[in-house]
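hiii, so i know i said id send this last week but things got crazy w the move. better late than never?? heres the sequnce for the chain we talked about at the cafe, plus the structure i predicted for it. fair warning i was half asleep when i ran it
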Amino acid sequence: MLLSNEQVKNLLLQSGQVNKETLATLEEFSKNARTPLQEAAIEKDAISDENLGILIANFLKYPFIYLAKTAIPENIFSIIPERIARKFKVVAFAKSEDGLMLAMVDPTNKELIDMIERKTRLKVVPYYATGRDVENTLQLYRKDLQQTFDDLLKREVGENVESEDAPIAKMVDLLITYAYRDKASDIHIEPEENDLLVRFRIDGILHDMLYLDKKLTDRIITRIKILSRLRTDEHLSAQDGKIRMMVDDDNLDLRVSIVPIAEGEKAVLRLLSSHFRASSLLDLGMKEDDFKKVNAAINKSFGMILSTGPTGSGKTTSIYSILKILNTREKNITTIEDPIEYRMKGVNQIQVNVKTNLTFANGLRSILRQDPNVIFVGEIRDDETAEIAVNAALTGHLVVSTLHTNDAATALPRLIDMKIEPFLVASTVNVIIGQRLVRRICESCKAQITVKREDMLRNIPVELLDKYFPKNDELIVAKGKGCKLCHQTGYLGRIGIFEVLEMTETIKKLISEKNDSDVISKEAIKEGMTTMQEDGVDKIAKGLTTIEEVLRVTMVEKV
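okay and structure toks below
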């Protein structure tokens, strides 16, 4: 890090954005997690990456640039070779009469500036940018996967793809590396009638990435089986395995599933980075007011915090962000998960194993004998797990878990359906987070468009439209045009839309009286709860996402 922990500490104090009590917690976390104070401040939600970057830039007396909000012309970006950009974490983002504007993690590096000036014959104007921001922007160097594979095969085996010299090991490694750099969550390797199709799931959407000759299918699947220690002679039954490998200095875990289909064997690889860097809840898109409600629940020593939503709505990421805040040396945090998606230093993580009868319920019973302060139950799936979790919350433990329900209010009758008494639900649940993930508009190709007010009113209630948009016949919203960085989709990355249901006395009374979720939801809105739909409209107005995305995930019927 460019600044010492002491310098970062003084900056945070002088800015007034972090008080002494919070700073003491950050220092303790930084020491125990062996992470710089700068990273600890972001991970603990004390300050955003952008705001801390501004403080550091002002301290260093360099201008600040936040690349995530900057459109970078491709001809400017390509001035710096990829090898130099990755090694020194620098990005060329603009050019003017003053010279080449360079985003640098270390703008004080005079040797690097001199070298770039000699090579480019341009005067360099250094800007400070945060490490996270620069790393994300380096994705612009991505080369077309199809072209890369075609060149590799041509170079290694010529036109004969059936050749024994086909570099299968190199091809599989390349696939995984590309998926990791594209921030894909899954790789799908699917044999079709005439081809082998490779697809990546990026930002929740599957993209066709590569077509290979079908004759390579068996050898690629066999290579994956060898890496994941599966039977290579078994082709008619499903097999599950794991791969661990190094990619870009990161330990990457891959969950492998292979199943026989009509055209051969299909493999799906789920990428799980063990070097997980939890995003803060604010970075994930949670509003300041909602975060305060969650933070109040986190600071209680007992009760339940629930995250709800369908599969793929970001529940686990939110829970890990909460655990990151809770993870201090004086607390014993134990989890029971299926699977363990990310490894967390200082947290005792237990993997569910049905073969040894280590279920959520049995594991939870064992955890209670381990003297825990905080318990994370991967998912409350059945009555038995629900009963033990509620009892744990009643007996002085903070229980964090997920539930598959459509919104925050629906979680309450869901627990009652699991044979939990209404008064117990009312007295144990501290806060419920309902969430969805929407794709974020790519900043590199963002453009403003106008839409007719009457078209918006078909899908968005008039009171929300009036609250977040001016009362004009035409409204201005943002949309991505599509560029190399976002695979021509117009979207890059995802952001959450949230609703946070706080357990007030009125809500507790409604639960005890066995009111349904609609009544509870209406009361919560009356008391100030922002619904997911409203949070989505707010993010449309701020130019973070599109109308189509919010409608897609909030399941509002599109016209």
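btw The chain has a mean pLDDT of 89. thought thatd interest u
miss u guys!!
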